């Protein structure tokens, strides 16, 4: 997003040659903030400016970014007085290597509407506080965008991390390109490129990312004076064509035709769910998914916006694609994962990548991968289960870059063709049918409550101990149904319970919410 450009204005009483340009860069470890600061300093000096660069280290990688602070002034023969760190309301240009860093800079007062040009990459890196919340703890990116538009004189934002990754370099190069393309500094593109070239390492990739970001910043249309211009989002990538054996393609096309016959509001979620389920198991499993979904669609209607069908399409897919040892092994041996790891680590073509996977199976996971009869036999004999658990329940590190390690996981992943015969699958299907039947049973009397019961499936996620804790929360939330049944606000209260369960790992908030629901039941009885 880019508003109409306007030159930096000197402070009242200052001559243009004497004014100090103040620029701050907020970046965390590994994003090349120091390199970016050096490049900007070099560019300034190449253009006859005196520049000073300092850094103020953050507390930790995701609880405080390092602030690289640069002040520059035209060399008039008299040495200017430079500050060592930025001050609130006294920053001309602020560059944030991630969207939420831009938000934090606004909160700290570094961005002002009459002065600051704010340049930020629109990609997100989840903070620790966002990761530890069991539910979706992500802060709203839209709110940051709206706040930045109001708080800054100019706001330029696009995915600079993607540009850097596509060109095989660090985000510092694309951030520099965005700065050059913004026109916020009175320097030519050539002087920026000369500074990058002087580095001597990775010059070709850095210049490519610089050029792409420069063109993107320049290409964002400016609005008339006083108006706000919004950059059009990059066009979404076209969906990849489905390919494979003719028999499988025919089965997929039949399933796709069934999705196309669903009500329009439910189609998108149903298509996503179908792709996930087929990828998880096979075409026949996709048919089972649509058979179950049809039951919800038959009970739903346009007057409700097909909310029940959309919730069913989403959460049925998640319930049918549970995490087990087979799934974990399958994902860790896919070629796409190897490509992603190589890209993220930055492994050069032809180099050897060594990957060590960590596994810590419990007796429950071991029994779950056995046929129903054998797995049940072990679980029903505590002494035998304990004996085996002492030998199984310990961490294992497996090198998947070795033939033995990869073959071991590949064989486990290949068990998915027999998954329907295994104990874990029977347990998951029985749980799914109870939950789904419970939800659909409430549709005639309270469709909103039925929808919220479906949404409670959000609580169940993860693998091993995480899955066990999640299922415990799920059961506790649904235990309130008996107290809520018949209330007009039953759906709202169930939603509150679910959100409370997602707020903290220990479940203290859920305990408090359940006590509140219990008091509501007591007051109704009286």
UniProtKB/TrEMBL annotation:
Pfam annotation, one family: POR
UniProt-listed Gene3D superfamilies: Pyruvate-ferredoxin oxidoreductase, PFOR, domain III
Residue span, DUF6537 domain: 267-478
Keywords on record: Oxidoreductase
Domain Pyruvate/ketoisovalerate oxidoreductase catalytic: 29-215
UniProt xrefs under NCBIfam families: PRK08312.1
Protein name as catalogued: Indolepyruvate oxidoreductase subunit beta family protein
Source organism (scientific name): Mesorhizobium montanum
């Amino acid at each position: 997003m880019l508003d109409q450009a306007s030159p930096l204005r000197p402070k009242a009483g200052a001559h243009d040659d004497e004014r100090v340009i103040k620029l701050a860069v907020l970046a965390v470890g590994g994003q090349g903030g120091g390199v970016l600061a050096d490049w900007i300093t070099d560019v300034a000096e190449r253009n006859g400016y005196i520049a000073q660069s300092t850094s103020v280290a953050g507390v930790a990688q995701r609880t405080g970014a390092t602030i690289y602070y640069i002040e520059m002034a035209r060399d008039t023969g008299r040495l200017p007085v430079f500050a060592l760190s930025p001050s609130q309301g006294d920053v001309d240009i602020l560059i944030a290597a991630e969207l939420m860093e831009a938000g934090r800079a606004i909160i700290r007062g570094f961005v002002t509407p009459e002065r600051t040009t704010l340049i930020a990459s629109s990609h997100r890196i989840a903070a620790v506080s966002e990761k530890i919340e069991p539910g979706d703890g992500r802060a709203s990116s839209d709110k940051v965008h709206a706040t930045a538009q109001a708080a800054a004189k100019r706001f330029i934002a696009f995915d600079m991390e993607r540009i850097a990754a596509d060109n095989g370099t660090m985000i510092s190069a694309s951030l520099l390109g965005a700065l050059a393309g913004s026109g916020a500094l009175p320097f030519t593109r050539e002087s920026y490129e000369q500074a990058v070239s002087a580095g001597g390492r990775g010059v070709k990739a850095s210049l490519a990312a610089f050029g792409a970001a420069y063109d993107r910043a320049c290409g964002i249309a400016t609005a008339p004076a006083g108006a706000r211009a919004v950059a059009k989002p990059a066009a979404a990538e076209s969906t990849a064509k489905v390919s494979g054996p003719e028999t499988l393609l025919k089965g997929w096309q039949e399933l796709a035709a069934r999705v196309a016959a669903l009500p329009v509001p439910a189609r998108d979620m149903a298509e996503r769910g179908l792709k996930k389920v087929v990828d998880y198991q096979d075409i026949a499993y996709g048919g089972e998914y649509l058979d179950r979904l049809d039951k919800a669609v038959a009970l739903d209607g346009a007057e409700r916006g097909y909310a029940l069908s959309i919730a069913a399409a989403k959460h049925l897919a998640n319930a049918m694609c549970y995490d087990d040892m087979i799934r974990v092994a399958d994902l860790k041996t896919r070629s796409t994962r190897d490509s992603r790891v190589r890209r993220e680590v930055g492994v050069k073509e032809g180099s050897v990548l060594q990957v060590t996977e960590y596994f810590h199976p419990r007796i429950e996971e071991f029994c779950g991968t056995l046929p129903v009869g054998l797995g049940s036999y072990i679980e029903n004999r505590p002494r035998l289960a304990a004996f085996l658990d002492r030998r199984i329940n310990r961490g294992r590190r497996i090198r998947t870059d070795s033939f033995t390690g990869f073959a071991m996981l590949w064989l486990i992943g290949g068990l998915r063709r027999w998954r329907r015969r295994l104990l874990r699958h029977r347990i998951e299907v029985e749980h799914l049918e109870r939950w789904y039947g419970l939800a659909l049973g409430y549709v005639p009397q309270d469709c909103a409550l039925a929808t919220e019961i479906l949404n409670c499936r959000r609580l169940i996620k993860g693998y091993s101990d995480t899955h066990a804790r999640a299922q415990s929360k799920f059961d506790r939330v649904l235990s309130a149904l008996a107290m809520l049944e018949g209330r007009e606000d039953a759906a709202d209260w169930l939603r509150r319970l679910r959100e409370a369960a997602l707020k903290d790992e220990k479940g203290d908030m859920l305990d408090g919410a359940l006590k509140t629901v219990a008091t509501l039941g007591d007051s109704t009885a009286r």
